[in-house]
Specification:
Elements: H1 3-70, H2 99-112, H3 117-139, H4 160-166, H5 172-243
Helix pairs in contact: 1-5
InterPro entries: ZNF380_CC, ZNF830-like
Subcellular location: Nucleus speckle
Protein name: ZNF380 coiled-coil domain-containing protein
Length: 245
């Protein structure tokens, strides 16, 4: 076998091997690009979900703030100084006997007294408890005029802190802190889920790349074997035809 034939054989073998390697590299690049696009789409979907959740939370907070702003506020007007408002003003009871009528009744009783002394004493003893009970009823405070502590509606006071203390409700800063802590927990949970998904995808991609490289190496080895056998057979055939062996 001459040197020219050997050089030609080596050149063809190198050309075929380079073409097969280029084809395998192109297929590998296409597969990696496809996997990268899939990973980018998955990351974009996760980002969209997170943005949608943040948007819904912001909308809920805005609606709550708007509802609180539109709620009618009841202003507390302090009583003027110099008056005791612990007891309500006594109003004339309906059905009370007027002074003129009481005077006429006294005159009638005066004329009847000599005739009915015992009856007048009994009536006087009955009238005294009735008068005392009437005075006690008139002097009793109006229970519905003052609100018990803790029974006022929300927004009764303009000061939110005072309103919360009177209603025995959580203070505004405590409520905001609890809501913010809950929001941070949800964000951390979403981040952990995203990291777990990305880690699983990365592991799967690494395994796929390793398998692809093994298949590539196996294919190159088999291709080399096939090309070597084919080139040897074709070269031997050409020698036989050329030199009529």
């Amino acid at each position: 076998m001459s040197d020219d034939v050997k050089a030609l054989f080596r050149q063809k073998l190198a050309s075929s091997q380079s073409k097969s390697l280029e084809a395998l590299k192109a297929a590998k690049r296409a597969k990696l690009q496809k996997q990268a696009r899939a990973d980018a789409q998955q990351d974009a979907a996760l980002q969209r979900k997170l943005a949608e959740k943040q948007r819904r939370d912001a909308a809920a907070r805005a609606v709550q703030a708007q509802a609180e702003a539109s709620r009618p506020s009841v202003r507390y007007v302090a009583p003027p100084e110099g008056r005791d408002h612990s007891q309500p003003a006594q109003q004339p009871a309906t059905g009370r006997i007027s002074d003129a009528k009481r005077a006429r009744l006294a005159k009638v009783e005066k004329y009847k007294r000599p005739l009915t002394t015992a009856a007048s004493k009994d009536s006087a003893s009955k009238q005294e408890p009735a008068a005392s009970s009437r005075q006690a009823r008139d002097a009793a405070p109006n229970k519905g005029s003052t609100a018990e502590k803790g029974s006022v509606p929300a927004g009764f006071f303009d000061d939110s802190v005072q309103d919360a203390k009177v209603r025995k409700a959580p203070l505004p800063h405590e409520t905001k802190a609890a809501e913010w802590a809950e929001f941070e927990k949800e964000i951390e949970k979403e981040a952990e889920t995203t990291e777990a998904i990305i880690e699983a995808d990365t592991n799967q991609t690494t395994i796929q790349r390793t398998l692809f490289e093994l298949e590539e190496q196996k294919g190159v080895a088999s291709l080399r074997t096939v090309l070597s056998s084919h080139e040897c057979v074709s070269f031997t055939t050409r020698l036989h035809h050329r030199y009529n062996l």
